[in-house]
Design brief:
The chain is α+β, with helices and mostly antiparallel strands. 36% of the residues lie in helices and 22% in strands. The chain has a 3-stranded antiparallel beta sheet with strand order 1-2-3, with helices on one face.
Length: 50
């Protein structure tokens, strides 16, 4: 999950019910860094689920 709030970007993992896992939240000052983290997390999830 990636979202913007108060001019900050957040990346977080969500469980199967779309609830945010508190310990997974990362905050970024810019969209580019947030997107890089989001892509890395997505790739990792794909690897773990294979």
């Amino acid at each position: 999950m990636i979202y913007e709030e108060f001019n900050k970007w957040f990346v977080a993992a969500a469980d199967e019910r779309a609830a945010i896992v508190d310990t997974s939240v990362a905050k970024y000052d810019n969209e580019s860094d947030a997107l890089l983290d989001f892509i890395e997390r997505t790739r990792l999830e794909k690897i773990l689920n294979n």
